[in-house]
Please model this.
Amino acid sequence: GAIAVRAGFLDFENVTFRFPKTSLDLTGGLAIGDWQPRFAYFLKSDDLRTVDRLATNFAAAIAKSPARPYGLAGTGEIQGTLAGRWARPEATARISTEGTFWSGVRLGTVYADVTVSDDAFFFRPLRAYDGDASLSLSGYARYKPRQGAPRFDLVASVSKFPMERILRYLAFDYPVTGLV
Model:
């Protein structure tokens, strides 16, 4: 693909970036000066830990302070859009991954439609399958507080999914184990 500068816009025309075991195809670009994103993307990875490192580096650059890794691992594809401001993105993602870990928690095979908007992740839905266990989430989880809005508004459907994984993912420290 080509990279061009047009009318104050850094334009990526079907550009492929290659990282270890990962490729990222971009169409769209950045307005020069405000550097805000307007992209459609397709990511394919044989090792999502590479994506975790890239995302952690971007988060640290945006926040201008160190960022903790997200704990993402596995293989798969993510496609969608990214717009808005780096500090308050508007994004969509269609996710299809295998052997997936998030926040260090094994989710297994994941299929999801996720939107990031208004400082929250909206799951429409997120479905995870690990052997005969399954987990489905619909609703939202806020990553920044909003007055008058709950931090979580989620509906979960769970079958034979280990409770300790769910609690660890939600950062709840309770001595509970067993299948739900």
